[in-house]
Amino acid sequence: MPHNEPQGPSQPWTRKSFLRGMAAVGAAPLLPGVIAATAPAAEAAPSDRPAFPLVRDGSAVDVFVDPSDDPAVVRAAGDLPADVERVGGVRPRLLHTLPERAAHLVLVGTIGASPVIDRLVAERRLDVSGVKGRWEASVTQVVERPVPGVDRALVIAGSDRRGTVYGVYDTSERIGVSPWYWWADVPVVRRETVSVPSGAVKRREPSVRYRGIFINDEQNLTTWSRRKQEPDKNIGPETYKRVFELLLRLRANYLWPAMHPYSDFFNKHRENPELADRYGIVVGSSHPEALLRNGVHEWDPWAKEHPGPDGALPVYDYTVNPGVISDYWRARARQNASYESSWTLGMRGLHDSALETKHATTIPEKVVVMNNIIADQRRILAEEVTAGAEPQIFIPYKEVLDLYNAGVQVPDDVTLIWPDDNHGNMRQLPDDAERVRAGGNGIYYHLSYWGRPRSYLWLDTTQLSKVWQELRRVYEHGADRMWIFNVGDVKSIETGLSFSLDMAWDVDRWNADGEDDVEDFVAEWAGRQFGRRHGPEIAAIRTEYYRLAAERRPEFIDRGMFSVVHHGDEAGRRMAAYGRLLERVRGLGAELPEAYRDAFYELVEYPVYGAYLMNVKYYWADRNALAVRQGRGAGANRFADLAEAAHAEEAAITKRYNTEVAGGKWDGIVNPYPSQIPKAPGRPTVTRVPRQETSGLGVAAEGNETGAGRPLSFSSYTRDRRFLDVFNTGFLSVDWAAEAGHPWVLLSATGGSVSEQTRVWVEIDWSRAPLGAQESTVVVTGAGQRVEVPLKVVNDGDRARRRARGFVEANGYVSIDAVHFERRVTRGGSRWRTVRGLGRRSAAVEAVPSTAAPVTGDFAARAPELRYRVRFASAGVFPVTVFRLPSLDERGHRRIAVGLDDQPVSVLSGQSVATGNRGDAWARNVEEGIEKLTTTVTVDEPGEHVLRLFMVDPAIAVDQIVVDTGGLPATYLAPPESYHPVFNPNPDSTAGLDAPSR
């Protein structure tokens, strides 16, 4: 899609350049309210009848709900008039008695709880087939003369209380009120006439029964809540009202509330559980909070009230104080027995720590203790709530998973909640026996996380295609009873949360290899927020934003991660991609009306801008460190200035979010550096060189930190562009000149005066270069210095380039994007599918179905296969590395097989277990977003060969393959993709690199 060109190398990185072009001017987008958007899993019947008016000629249609209906329905029905007023400027009346006469009326009610709805069903005037008796289903239908005196009614009827509530909010969204109208300041477009199509809409029951969020590591939310919602509380009823409404508008029904020391525990304010029940939200508790007890806040007071016979305070250890702990749980069960709650069984330590068992030291002993704990908790629930209190859940999180696998007996009607590794990779999924349990299975999945090896709490950075891949796998394994998403502070996770809950409602709505892929979700979702015509561009922006985060989350950035000397400045290439993305954001922002600026900043601009700044300040810091090692003078200080300017700009945009956006509404909600939880990377350390009135010439060629010991390499296939840096070792300007050894060696600059540094690009005029292997030089002179930069040039000619088939070895490697296969072979009912938007490149390939049996032998006959044609210029035994996404299976393996031609294949085994450590293979994999699996292939003779990739275990995803044919430097990213006449006919290893080249 069109976007503005990046800045040239001569333009400095300044605040002014960042802010240029951000004024919000342009034509209004297509109105979200005009879009006939219906909820996923909804069926809209066509109709030739006129649309049903909600506002016309300055009058609004009244809304009726029976006062005897569920309080959640009565409350939500009251939100519909408010939403209609937001769109039409006129507020309907909310009626609790039917009018004697009305031309139009909105009827809201629940089947079995609303007499008027039940009468329409009994008279077969309201079609509830596929709705009645189902979980949270609903129908919206226009009925003529529904009751005496009413000519026409829009009927919103649910199978149960939440089904009706979802029907109400779906109607609100259809007329243009986004679920994020409050939480993300999405404007509501005003219209004089407000109507909905008259065709009936049925919303089938959801794919997942319980769908919700965990507010966790919520210091920023607590800070904001105290400043802007309730000055006397640390997240209280006023904030939870907003949370409950958001969840219902997103068709969620479940919450684990905030739990940390800096927040008020949920039951501290008794209005909280009462409000949740009135809204229709099921409240549960996280893995360390058994039976709705918050150990962080509640155990110490309880212990002080229940000292031992010697006056000592009891410890939270069931092997030491079972009676005191049991009574502690029982008190909450009794207190919350009347609410629709979810009951967490089992036990961990206080404040998300490991289980403490002083008198049980071995795994078998701890299993017995856990079995006793569950039995005790079940007795409490039977006695204080009901014998069938549900849902009851057991969460085998961290060390508890080891106990579960060692023999903990979880009752059949209890839901098993399987956790990911906190980084979006499911650790373990139900087996055949677990899939048929009466209680079913669910998941606890992180979109935000505090813990090892690194935390990501600031921005929404998990690729949606990654979420899609793992949730599809989850669903295929029968985990469909409950999905809980850790969303941190709620803000900044808007897109990821919307997608995750969308999948939970209708898991089949979005695919990654079909017509409706994940990027289509973002386009549709963004279109509802900003207007349909802007949806595709926002989707493309978010997809690239997620891709760059998949290379390395901005919260994981550190010194020296990306090379600044290899592959055309690997780090610089990445910064150039970020720079181009930011230009697209600016261009789009300039088209939006002023009313959309706050929402755009929150949902699009700040995440891209912030991620860019977090990365670019470390890029300049790395350039500064390299400059110091190279002995640069003024240039070293310039890089230091740029690093610190980027950090200052990052602080400035965060301040704008908190104090200017939406009139300061979000003060405190966004902070990369909170005081009490892990922080994003802060200000990188830089070094400044004392000024000296000297000058001197220095040269560093690409591939070298200093000097030019490693030649610049060029191939007629990749048509490379290489750089050499000419720099000043002092502070006074120095004159320099560069001369190429042959006329077919082209230089972007041949001399001048340099006060800091300049980057000279070297290219080959292939129409003039002689065929075969050539050597040449670039000589740089100045200040009495002479530096010779060697060049190695291989020119096979245009004819060979045109006739090449497959990927061509050049510059010591073959690099392949895994989706660029020549042939895909399906075998044994399994296949490789392309998942767009997954991994570090544009897409990845995944072995499916995820439930397929592993293939452990006879691969050429039994395993699905991918084939890649490769032309090698040399022979030998070469390392081949497969870049796979780090999925897990703690009951099995993570294997893939690689072979060349008809040679025996090598089976590569990846990390299958989440250790939870720092510094080991699992930690490295989740930090980098990939796992590198390496073997060797033997190339007997130069020429064309076929590289073959076989599935061993299902649900393996691969995004790149690299063959090192000699001298490939070690870098964080794979080298740029090799020449391929179809997939990569015009490779440019330094595309867009000018943006950060100062």
Automatic annotation (TrEMBL):
Pfam families: GH115_C, Glyco_hydro_115
Domain Gylcosyl hydrolase 115 C-terminal: start-end pairs: 806-977
Lineage: superkingdom: Bacteria
Location of region: Disordered: 978-998
A Gene Ontology biological process term: carbohydrate metabolic process
Gene Ontology molecular function, alphabetical: hydrolase activity
Keywords, sorted A to Z: Hydrolase
Protein name as it appears in the record: Gylcosyl hydrolase 115 C-terminal domain-containing protein
Species name: Streptomyces resistomycificus
